[in-house]
Amino acid sequence: MAAGISRFEGKAAVVTGGSRGIGAAVARRLAAEGAAVAIGYRGNQEAAEKLVAELRAEGARAVAVRSDVADPEQTKDLIERAVAEFGRLDVLASCAGIEHFDALENITPADFDRIFTVNTRGQLFAVQHAAAHLSEGGRIVLTSSVSASRAVFGHTLYASSKAAIESMVLNLSAELGARGITINAIAPGGTATDMAAEHAASYQHPELKGTVPMPQWEATHGALRRLGRPEEIAAGYAFLASDDAAYMTGRTLQVDGGYF
Ligand SMILES: NC(=O)c1ccc[n+]([C@@H]2O[C@H](COP(=O)([O-])OP(=O)(O)OC[C@H]3O[C@@H](n4cnc5c(N)ncnc54)[C@H](OP(=O)(O)O)[C@@H]3O)[C@@H](O)[C@H]2O)c1
What we know:
Rossmann fold; seven-stranded parallel β-sheet; 8 helices; binds NADP nicotinamide-adenine-dinucleotide phosphate; alpha/beta; single chain; globular
């Protein structure tokens, strides 16, 4: 139980992209505070089932469902499975996302469709299907990125797919607010996950790329001079998913260690 807090006792949550990284940390945090958790994942069944076993061993109710957010019908299945298992839905934490770096001249329509289908369209339809089951007090937390508001070479597709999320939560807040449901986003900064291990070097200026060792780059990253830990980012999701954030909606919370 995180710091003896149990803000989600008796509640049920769906976490997309919950098998690894930030999503797995969100699932752990919500479960530690009492939530029953349904974890969606794209392909890594082993990691998802291992996490479910871990959460159950801690006394939580948990289930893993293979569901690619690129296909809204699969997201619908994930949400309906959660409702069938737990009898209710209180929280959607939408964490699934994919990275992309490439220069303008190399971007193809297929790249555009792939990135926006997962990062943007996938989150919109997760909201639509979750909203069908949420009632007053429901909480939706989407995932943007600090990249939405920073210029980085070759990052246009990913960054703009995330910037759309910040507008999405702003605009959906009015519709959902009428039903007493809040919707916000987290914009994580660089966080030590598989995604960061694979792509962090691409954040270096092309003229420096490869010349600054990654440990040195990380040690100068942001005001706190390190990457975030997934559980530090998850604390932001838990806040927005809790009653502590009851009067907050339509906003994007930057949890980035001071990466300005
Ligand atoms: N790490 C960072 O520095 C950082 C910074 C800002 C924003 N973010 C955002 O935070 C979120 C989590 O990132 P992360 O670093 O934890 O990523 P990660 O380590 O690459 O993990 C990605 C997770 O998303 C799932 N996923 C990917 N594509 C999916 C799809 N089409 N359908 C369903 N699930 C899918 C993966 O499932 P499988 O295990 O089955 O592959 C995995 O659980 C993403 O939205 C990312 O854009 C990350």
